[in-house]
Each structure stands twice: as C-alpha cells, then as structure tokens.
C-alpha cells in the first residue's frame, strides 16, 4: 500500500469535507454553551446545550437541532431493488470539484485484477463487482466481511483513496474510546476557532461566532447525523492528531490529518473501522450505542442504503469529495456483515454502482 509515511503531505485542504450538503440545511440549532463573568470575577460556564450522559450509557436524547428519524416499520418481505437505482439527492449539489481540485492518487492494483481464490459465498458478489468495474469510468475497491463466520471478500484492496467524510467514523470512534478512558467527558467543552471553519459542510456553524464553546456530545452527533465538517475538525483537534493516528492504527486502519487534510486510506482500512464498531457493540453495547444512535439518524440514505432491501438494517457513513464517492456500513440482521465501497472517477455512476454492489452483497449473504 502507498503508506510510506505516517503523515502524508497533501496539497488540498478540507479532504474530509463535503460529507453532506444536508448539514448545510440545518439551522444554527441550540445556542452553544456561553461563558459569563461570575460574581468573583472568574469565568462561569453555563450548562451544556446538549446531553451529558455517563460515558458508558447511551445518549438520553439527540441534540435538539438534530432531525428525528422514526423507528423503521417492520418489513414482511424485502422490497425488490430494480436494476436501475434512482440516485438519492446529491449531498454536494453545489460543490464544484474543479474549484476544489480533488487530486488523483495513483492506482496500485490492476484496474481488473485476475480472478483469485474467492470464497464460495462471495462468488455472486465478485461477479457483480467485476461486471460493474469493467464498465466503470474510474476505479473502485470493495471489502465485504460476513460477521457470522468471518468470510471475507476483497477487490482491489491495495488502492488508496482520500476518505472524504468517511473520516468522521474513526474520529468519533476514537472520541468514544477517549471518553471511556476518562480523557474526555460528554460535557467537555470545545472552542470553535477559525482553524475549525470550513467553507463546505458548516451547517449551523455558519451563523455562530468563533470562541463559542460546544459540548463533545453535540459535536459527535453533528459529525455523524448531518456529517458536519466543522464539528469533526473540532473533535479531531481535541483528540490531537497524533493520538488519532495511534487510535486508528490500533484499529488496523490508520488515518489522521495533516495541515492540508486527511491522509489516504484503503477499503480494508475502512472495514477495520467498522470492525471496531462491531466489536464494541458485542463487548460494550451501551458504549457502542453512542455511535449507533446518531448513525441511525443520518440525513442521507443513498448508496448502500439504497441498494439494501432492508435499509432499516443499515448503519452507514458515506463520503463525497468529487471525484471520490464512498460508502461503508454494517448491515445488521440475522447474518450481519460489513460492506465498504470506495470509488474514484465514476461521477454520476457512483451512486448506482454502490447500490448495485450493496444488493449483490445482500443476496450473497442471504443465499446461504
């Protein structure tokens, strides 16, 4: 893999950006924590605007500016997915990649690798992935893992991509782990500074002043639910970028930020992040709920969700930094599995390609 240095210099700022234009649609929401002068002349911190649950307990309630997501209705039978999937509204409708200039990363694997030793369960998925890759304008990588028996599928696993907003998943995992260790609390206040600002994906931060203070709980929810770029920058800075690199390396998928943006990752890196979520759910379910609860309330339901017959079973984090278009998920259910699809250069075909791969993964698992 092209991970020659732990901190890869890049020439573009904000590569975690463009997570979701829906974050642009959020209002400023509740006021941040305010600081006022106390009677003794010292600063006094007002009560946080959002929850302060114990680190190992699930959130009592979402941040009040977050959109509610109703419990999914039960499905008697999975709904069929047509061959042609109507793309969800683009999360970056007003984003011009030529202005922002997303740089290319050189491919490592052949665009169409020779057929390898694919486990029987994943043969149908491999056939679909190869058919899509053969006609795809750019390139793509796929990892799928059956969480029941560990059966694993990889297509072009050595290629690296800029992660875009999929970066928000490892940052929030590391935040929850830091809270568990007592290094942070849900009420820890983080100051909004100019270095945190972002011209894309600001959401409510577009209307607030530098110097305002925000609880970690609020920032984590914003990072996952509306893919807010400012919120995740504030969390990453609070963790420190060195500790973020250590934390993600321990998961098996190292990523951090340089002053210019996020470092590149592979599909196996991103699968390792989802494996960490799965392990946390198995070992510390209440702690994991701090991630899973906001992931159930995301404001974008395209790509893997669009292609999975039971979209209510999907918890996913997508990323868009044209021409990079990604999605990764755990699909829960009787046979849970991880699916990661990273793409480059597919333009309008990316959403449909990811959705079709998601359907093929579902069919492979449930044909067992």
What descriptors fit this protein?
11 strands, 5-stranded antiparallel β-sheet, globular, two-stranded antiparallel sheet, 14% strand, alpha+beta, disordered N terminus, 368 residues
Q: How does this structure look, described?
A:
There is one protein chain. The chain has 368 residues and is α+β, with helices and mostly antiparallel strands. It has a single domain, classed as DD-peptidase/beta-lactamase superfamily (Beta-lactamase). 32% of the residues lie in helices and 14% in strands. The strands form four sheets. Strands 4-3-11-10-9 form a five-stranded antiparallel sheet, with helices on both faces. It has a two-stranded antiparallel sheet with strand order 1-2. The protein has a two-stranded antiparallel ribbon with strand order 5-6. The radius of gyration is 20 Å and the shape is globular. The model is unreliable at 1-101 (pLDDT under 50).
The run of helices and strands is: HEEHHEEHEEHHHEEHHHEEEH
Arrangement of strands in the largest sheet: 4-3-11-10-9
The shape, in one word, is: globular
Helix content: 25-40%
Low confidence ranges: 1-101
The overall strand count is: 11
- The structural class is alpha+beta
User: In the residues, how many domains can be counted?
Assistant: 1
In this structure, how is the largest beta sheet organized?
5 strands, antiparallel
Q: What is the CATH architecture annotation?
A: 3-Layer(aba) Sandwich
- CATH topology call: Beta-lactamase
- The CATH C-level class name: Alpha Beta
What amount of the residues lies in strands? Answer: 5-15%
CATH superfamily: DD-peptidase/beta-lactamase superfamily
Rounded radius of gyration (Å):
20 Å
